[in-house]
Design brief:
The protein is mainly alpha-helical. The chain is built from 4 helices and no strands. It has one domain. Helix 1 crosses helix 3. It starts with a helix and ends in a 39-residue tail after the last helix.
Length: about 140
């Protein structure tokens, strides 16, 4: 997507008229949150960019950037219900992004400490030194 596409979508949804210069900061805030939550190092957008942001697919850009930007726009207006709704949608979509999208190697943050996921509910035995076992008491 181009910056202009995100601006039009966000302004339409929010019923506002923010400039690209104002909204690029909100988009970069979203990218920053995505980077932190996903251990990524996606580059930021600038107003001068006239090309597509092809770092990850358009469907994910629309799902992540638009609700986050609308949330920021509504926070400026002090519309608490609207910004909470949009931030909630962003968080839900970010959770899906973390699960479904594999960060390309060139955008993996090499400074990010790798760790196991906190959720061991899918297969808690896989972390045993001997590998998986059907016997929970066997180490």
């Amino acid at each position: 997507m181009r910056l202009g596409d995100i601006v039009v979508a966000a302004n339409t949804l929010a019923d506002e008229n923010f400039s690209p210069g104002q909204l690029v900061q909100f988009i970069n805030d979203a990218i920053s949150k995505i980077n932190v939550m996903c251990g990524a190092d996606f580059p930021f957008m600038s107003v001068e960019d006239t090309t597509d942001y092809q770092i990850f697919p358009d469907k994910w850009q629309r799902a992540l950037f638009v609700p986050f930007v609308v949330g920021r726009m509504k926070a400026v207006d002090s519309s608490q219900f609207e910004y909470n709704t949009n931030y909630g949608e962003f968080q839900t979509n970010l959770d899906l992004f973390r699960v479904k999208y594999e960060i390309p190697d060139q955008y993996v943050d090499s400074n990010e400490a790798r760790r196991f996921d906190d959720d061991l509910s899918t297969s808690p035995w896989q972390w045993l030194p001997t590998g998986m076992s059907n016997d929970p008491w066997k180490v």
